[in-house]
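Exercise (ungraded).
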Amino acid sequence: MEFDKEVDARNLNCPLPILRCKKGLSDMEAEQTLKIMATDPGSVKDFEAFCKQTGHELLQMDEADSVFTFYIKKHINE
Amino acid sequence: MAKKLALIASKGSLDWAYPPFILASTAAALDYEVQIFFTFYGLTLLKKDISDLKVSPLGNPAMPMPVPMPNLAQMLPGMESMATMMMKQKIAKKGVASIETLREACLESGVKLIACQMTVDLFDFKPDDFIEGVEFGGAATFFEFAGASDVNLFI
């Protein structure tokens, strides 16, 4: 999947992956896609909740070798 | 309009420092407007140097210990330092953020930190003891924000 920026949040625990994601999105343009990787199993539910509440779109979530990769499209209004 | 989170942080040990800073930084990431009111021992969390926060197994029967230990043994000299050291090692090993990191994240994301003026006076703290950006206020200050908040928690 194509993306505009990549953030590595592996080996970090709650709430750091979400904080890194928010920071990563902050200097991106609307509609751009952020790829973020995490190993915290709780991040699966947390990223869904983050996107639901902030309006960013969770385009895709993959899991391979205990690494979760999320693709998040930045909301148009932020 | 942004949602609002009002927290009261009343405890100043290493373990209890986590909930207010985790919730505040996360809520800020979720675009909440956040205020934390630090009172009594919670004021410790606003000091410039918070590297000496401690955790005590005393009076805390639920704290996981490497070996079961009677409560009386937990009051021996050195037990608190040992528990604190072990907790810090675990925190680092598991990739859990340090309190300094979480507090920094709160400051960066505009979380408002309010020190309870009454407790500051009670404990003879000086405004200079605290990090920059801290505001001072009383219960009425807390309610001005808390009364219009969506989530209010006492920690």
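Further reading is listed at the end of the chapter. For now, observe: The first helix of chain A runs from residue 16 to 26. Residues 30 and 77 of chain A are 7 Å apart (CA to CA).
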